[in-house]
Design a protein that fits this description.
This protein is mainly beta and about 350 residues long. The protein is about 5% helix and about 45% strand. The protein has 1 helix and 29 strands. It has one helix spanning about 10-20; strands at about 25, 60-65, 70-75, 80, 95, 100-105, 115-120, 125-130, 135-140, 145-150, 155-160, 165-170, 175-180, 185, 195, 205-210, 215-220, 225-230, 235-240, 245-250, 255-260, 265-270, 275-280, 290-295, 300-305, 310-315, 320-325, 330-335, 340-345. The strands form 7 sheets. Strands 10, 11, 12, 13 and 14 form a 5-stranded antiparallel beta sheet that branches. It has a 4-stranded antiparallel beta sheet with strand order 1-29-28-27, with no helix packed on it. Strands 2-3-4-5 form a 4-stranded antiparallel beta sheet, with no helix packed on it.
């Protein structure tokens, strides 16, 4: 399926007026319930807007490459794929097989219907969304935490909660083959997220560390090539802008730093988060950025080139997961007791 034609970029001074006109759609899954926001290793302090009774069970969300589908993974083992245009749960696809909470999901960037998920049950599963079947299961040897997929679809990196990284190969001698786990690589520091740069085949990978740095390492050997000292506390999330110009780094210090990838200089720091940054993401054109947190309600959207906050999205609870549509100014987020929310899916011109 071909990706939708992207909309025209919006100027900074027009974003607030246009984004505020978008209507939000709710995707409620009656079978997914209970506490469990995405808290990999350092749970937040309980606050009036962050009590167990108000936390959502959704731990991860991810758009498919074209934006025609969106996947959610929950603490209660529910893995579901939604059609944004059909919010009723009867029109969604539930993928069954995990026996523990879903920690992270990722789509194959080259295939619209292939999804991977990691779980606290100690497995990484690969799914064919069309047939609703699990096509492969990788035993991780410990609780899964994070996953990233190379842009050419040839490799996946899975992280366990004990800070061990497991490369998974899907390509050998230019031929696709079933997912094969390579030797695990224990890391000396806490590693909450990994990210493949946009090179094919993958030769490097970015890793967060609890020491406040980002490591650029070789793939799959994971030999450190360069260390970027990004924050004064743990780095917890990463995102590369669609243009490739900026790397956004979220930290447990409630800051998002924006790094120019041409010279690896920090151009600006965003301080609008209420707590540690669990997820960070760019709009489809790379012009706007926001982060998700387990603390404080609301999502603050900033203009990348100026660092100016251009819109504050009100939420009823903390929103730990945020994800921009790959071709529109739609923003999906978790945290609402009613379920997944997508700003723009219920109507609007963006």
């Amino acid at each position: 399926m071909a990706p939708p034609q992207p909309r025209r970029p919006i100027a900074k001074d027009r974003f607030s007026a246009l984004f505020s006109a978008l209507k939000t759609q709710t995707y409620h899954d009656p079978s997914s319930r209970g506490p469990g926001s995405h808290t990999p290793k350092d749970p937040p302090k309980e606050t009036p807007t962050n009590t167990p009774s108000r936390q959502t069970s959704i731990r991860t969300i991810a758009w498919s490459p074209t934006g025609h589908l969106i996947a959610t993974g929950s603490a209660d083992r529910t893995l579901r794929v939604w059609n944004p245009e059909k919010p009723q749960v009867k029109n969604s696809t539930e993928l069954r097989g995990h026996t523990g909470g879903i920690e992270r999901v990722a789509w194959n960037p080259t295939k619209e219907a292939e999804l991977a998920s990691v779980s606290s049950d100690g497995t990484c599963k690969f799914w064919d969304v069309r047939s609703k079947t699990c096509t492969a299961t990788i035993q991780l040897g410990g609780e899964g935490l994070t996953i990233s997929w190379a842009v050419d679809g040839s490799a996946v990196m899975v992280g366990r909660k004990d800070d061990t990284l497991i490369p998974i190969s899907l390509l050998s001698d230019q031929q696709h083959h079933p997912p094969t786990a390579l030797p695990p690589s224990p890391q000396p520091t806490q590693t909450n997220q990994t990210l493949f740069p946009p090179s094919a085949p993958p030769s490097t990978i970015l890793l967060t560390t609890s020491a406040g740095s980002i490591k650029l390492a070789t793939y799959p050997a994971l030999q450190t090539l360069h260390t970027l000292h990004a924050h004064t506390s743990a780095c917890t999330s990463l995102a590369l802008s669609p243009t490739g110009r900026y790397l956004a780094v979220g930290g447990s210090d409630a800051l998002i730093s924006l790094w120019d990838t041409t010279d690896w200089v920090c151009r600006r720091t965003l301080a609008g988060m209420a707590g540690g940054v669990r997820q960070v993401g760019f709009s489809w054109d790379g012009a706007f950025v926001c982060g998700g947190s387990d603390e404080g309600a609301g999502i603050e959207i900033a203009h990348v080139e100026t660092g100016e906050y251009v819109f504050g999205l009100a939420t009823t609870a903390p929103a730990p997961c945020v994800a921009w549509h790959p071709g529109r100014y739609w923003l999906a987020y978790s945290g609402d007791p009613a379920g997944l929310k997508i700003v723009g899916a219920a109507g609007g011109s963006l």
